[in-house]
Amino acid sequence: MNRKLPVFKNLLYLSGGKVFEILCLFFYIAIVARYLGVEEFGGYSFLWAILILLTVIPDAGINSVLVRDLTLKSNENSRYFGGAIVSRYLLCVVIFFCFLLTVHILGLFPASRGSLYFGLMWMFFRMATLSNNAVFLAYERLDLESYFTALGSSLILIFTFFVTRFTDYRITGIFASQALAEAITSVSSFIVLSAVLLKPKIEFAPSLWMHYFKNSFSVAGSRIARNVYNRIDIFFLYKFRGVGEVGIYSAPYNLIQRMSFFGLLLSRPVYPALCWFANHDKKMLSQISQKWIKMLTLIGIPISVGCITFSNSIISLLLGKGFEESSTVLSLLGIIFFFSFPNALLWFLSLSLGLQHVLLRYTVLSLIINTIIDLLFIPKYGYWGACAGTLAAELFFMISCMIKIKKSNPVFEFRFIDVFGKPLFAGVLMAIVAILLQKYCHISVTIFLVITTYVLVVLMTKTFTRSDIKSIREILRYRTEFQNKQINEAGELL
Fold this sequence. Notes:
Layout: H1 7-59, H2 62-72, H3 77-106, H4 113-138, H5 142-166, H6 170-196, H7 206-215, H8 217-240, H9 243-267, H10 271-280, H11 282-309, H12 311-318, H13 326-333, H14 337-352, H15 356-381, H16 383-408, H17 416-438, H18 443-460, H19 466-493
Helix pairs in contact: 1-3, 1-4, 1-5, 1-8, 1-9, 2-3, 2-4, 3-4, 3-7, 4-5, 4-6, 5-6, 8-9, 8-15, 8-16, 9-13, 9-14, 10-11, 10-14, 11-13, 11-14, 11-17, 11-19, 12-13, 14-16, 15-16, 17-18
């Protein structure tokens, strides 16, 4: 049962799981937004933003370190898995204690305590899910992760529908639904993982815990900073513009953010390969990185165009009355996919090259840029300023990472015209066709013709060809064959 799957099969499974998760998310946001209304949905989003920030700290980059440990130290994998679990929950206990102490001393959220408690329960089980996912990734069994992603998404949708349809628990009931769904998902995935892949060895090992704390510091700082700048818009909108504008902004923002994770998940299956090439063949690393970034850009651009040109229809369908202004937010933030999809691969590429400190530096600078723009423009322009800050931060991160990777590794080549220019040209033509046809054709016909236009332009400009796909497969096959050769040689020596 402990068998690896090829990268493309992992990619297929993970993509399928993510598509299903996004579809469930669309229905989830539609149900919750219609149930709560603009004002109450803004309050829900504010509490959720706090919980997400709390979750980042016990996550703390431990997954990245654990994946590397499980890849390189097969004889001690059970011990490393157990150490990562204990390290994560030690941080969790500290965070829980400090947060609850602060809430009770300062008298914060007096009307939302039940929601917060259920939110912390969700956080507890979420930590277990994250640990399980690291093992699935290290063992290149993302088919199992996708199954449990689909399970979790389905349960959240079902439980939330039940709460909003048959009870009057409002926000507290919604958080309780999320906690219950995460509990079932984490426990079931752990049972399967222990049976077919790896059982954790829990022991008293302070040195091992410190290994995770120390080695995850840079990644932890980067993720904390990134999550702060992903959520800081909501805090500033809450402070300067009120809970109503938080609701208008956060509904499309949640959709955008979850869909941006699609780029992250498309990059995750190739992370073990990036780590291997970083240590054995940097020319191959450069080739696969460039082709993968181009592929991600080609996927991200049509999503951007769709969000920009069909924002009114999307918001009307999902959210209904009271959220009309959210269509403007969706069209503005839709541009982000042009940056966020390549940024996902750049994140893993930097980790594979040992540039964690670079990620920390540029993520913090991105946070500063976002914060400055928010403070300057949100008080006067509201969600327009929030959108500008988010886009500027993503653009800065992409350009800075590319420059640094090139400087530290001269063998790397980023052919900007080939990687970004041709896809952008196809995207512009796609947008023009969408704008022209929207007034005269049914939306289904428009979408079909727009996608056809994009595909034809990509094929005609030879932006991504069969040879590119063949090249990626050959590179990954080369890695697998070389690994097998090393294993066989080691066996002969023994």
